[in-house]
Amino acid sequence: MMTAPGQAPTVPPGPRHPLDPDPARASKARAVFALGLLAALTGLFVGGVVPATVALQLARQARREAYASGGFLTGAAWLRRGERLAWTGLALVAVTVVAAVVVGVVRLAEAPYGQDFAPNVD
């Protein structure tokens, strides 16, 4: 086999064993992406917490299954994208909660303290 100077020689892949399964995309990878997208879209409404946590748990399980499969389960790119979207959704939830707390504290500080009586009441 001839290669260009500076290139590493390529080795043709060995024959596959007939009982080896065909590589397939993990079904959990698609679910992680869908849940991560849902979390990112609903993060500002604080509804993104549930799909984000489910997506992160599924991603963890999918990574374990992909590792145990020895390379026959694919979909790592979908997992990464789904995890990033889930973390984005959680960050949006955190921003929303912090903003709501700040607005609540400011409104509480502006409220009159105690009971306000008329000027002619002792």
Question: What general form does the structure show?
Answer: rod-shaped
Decide which structural class fits the backbone. mainly alpha
- Secondary-structure element sequence? EHHEH
Number of helices: 3
Counting structural domains, the number is: 1
Side-by-side strand order of the widest sheet:
1-2
Helix content: 55-70%
For the residues shown, what is the average pLDDT? 87
Taking the alpha carbons of the first and last residues, their distance comes to: 105 Å
Strand content: under 5%
Rg of Cα set: 27 Å
List unreliable stretches of 5+ residues. Answer: none
The biggest beta sheet reads: 2 strands, parallel
Number of strands: 2
Q: What characteristics describe this protein?
A:
122 residues, mainly alpha, two-stranded parallel ribbon, 2 strands, 3% strand, DUF4190 domain-containing protein, membrane
